[in-house]
Specification:
Elements lengths: L3 E2 L3 H7 L14 E2 L3 H6 L4 E6 L3 H5 L10 H9 L12 E7 L9 H24 L3 E6 L5 H12 L3 E6 L16 H7 L3 E9 L6 H9 L3 E5 H7 L3 H9 L6 E6 L18 H10 L6 E5 L13 H25 L1
Parallel strand pairs: 2-4, 3-4, 3-5, 5-10, 6-7, 6-9, 7-8, 9-10
Antiparallel strand pairs: 1-4
Helix pairs in contact: 4-12, 5-6, 6-7, 11-12
């Protein structure tokens, strides 16, 4: 775990724009000081950053996903602390520091992703064993695999996953990258049921479509179908996970949202408010949330400051919705 960097209070304070008469989330959140402290803490949610795009590059994508973590963290910490979301529900664990391979060869990048897997899953496992809900900001979608592995090992049973994504990430188990995290999780027994919502017919190959059609563990709703059937997104999604009995993780790949900067930027997809409605209306308890593939700055020069605030909205919505479910359970 030598790659995990935790934060001092001064580090968090430097990210908060303090203003007289106001309290920001960053002034209320808890900071990590040890696994026993986490276990005994009253917080329910733990925030972790995986700022890397090695997996994206290994999948022949454009680097940039490593740039989202700090701006997204700053955007989140500067939300107003109110009765809706005080910040006391959340602990900031920290982020991983991964060395970028000197060589840009695919095999070297794939080996680096495999090393990332080995660093990430034990941390996720410890969060789950402490009885908390991890919220992870990526990073590439390759990290779905170690997150699912860590959750499965922490709960001692395979996971289910709901992935809101334009791509299924079911490429062959042949070298680790951002396009095969769910393939690895299925093959290694960490993923029991896999539901994909919002797939684009144009950007999933025939082999992947065949796997979705033939594998009873996988189900999908295509974005193309959503455009024609007239159902609300929440209504169309509920049957997809209605019989999920195992613990379920929520994956949101930002390349499914129109005009959000990512390696697989799309001009056609969900609006940010569509995803917010899904999170707030679904009323489904999730074991974790993973927001990935978004970027502030791409290697090809494109930039967008809006990505950070989009991530902050999704995380705050998730915590509000899940906190309400925790409250209803205790009544």
């Amino acid at each position: 775990m030598e790659t995990l960097e935790t934060y001092e209070s001064a580090t968090i304070k430097a990210l908060v724009n303090q203003r007289e008469g106001e309290i920001k989330l960053g002034e209320q959140v808890a900071l990590f000081s040890g696994w026993e402290q986490l276990k005994n803490s009253s917080v329910k949610f733990v925030l972790l950053g995986i700022p890397e795009d090695i997996g994206v590059r290994a999948n022949h994508g454009i680097a940039g996903a490593a740039s989202a973590w700090i701006p997204a963290l700053k955007a989140l910490l500067n939300i107003q602390s109110t009765a809706f979301f005080s910040g006391k529900e959340l602990m900031i664990l920290g982020h991983f520091n991964f060395e970028v391979p000197k060589s840009s060869g695919i095999s070297e990048l794939e080996n680096a992703v495999a090393a990332i897997d080995e660093a990430v899953y034990p941390v996720i496992q410890k969060i789950i064993e402490a009885g908390k809900t991890p919220i992870i900001i990526g990073g590439g979608h390759n990290n779905a695999y170690p997150i699912l592995k860590g959750c499965a090992m922490g709960s001692e049973k395979p996971m289910n996953a709901l992935n809101i994504d334009a791509h299924a990430d079911l490429r062959p188990v042949q070298g680790r990258h951002s396009g095969n995290g769910f393939s690895y999780a299925l093959q290694h027994g960490y993923l029991e049921r896999y539901a994909i919502f919002g797939l684009h017919q144009n950007y999933n190959n025939s082999a992947i479509l065949k796997e979705i059609a033939e594998n009873p563990k996988i189900s999908a709703v295509f974005f193309d179908e959503l455009l024609s059937n007239g159902l609300s997104y929440a209504e169309a999604l509920k049957p997809l996970i209605a019989d999920f009995s195992n613990e379920t993780g929520l994956e949101i790949d930002l390349d499914c949202i129109e005009n959000v900067l990512s390696s697989a930027f799309t001009p056609s997809g969900f609006q940010i408010n569509d995803i917010r409605r899904i999170i707030l209306q679904l009323k489904k308890k999730f074991a974790y949330m993973h927001v990935c593939e978004g970027a502030i700055q791409m290697a090809d020069g494109r930039t967008s400051i809006g990505t950070a605030k989009s991530i902050a909205y999704l995380i705050s919505d998730f915590i509000k919705a899940q906190s309400l479910l925790f409250t209803e359970e205790s009544i």
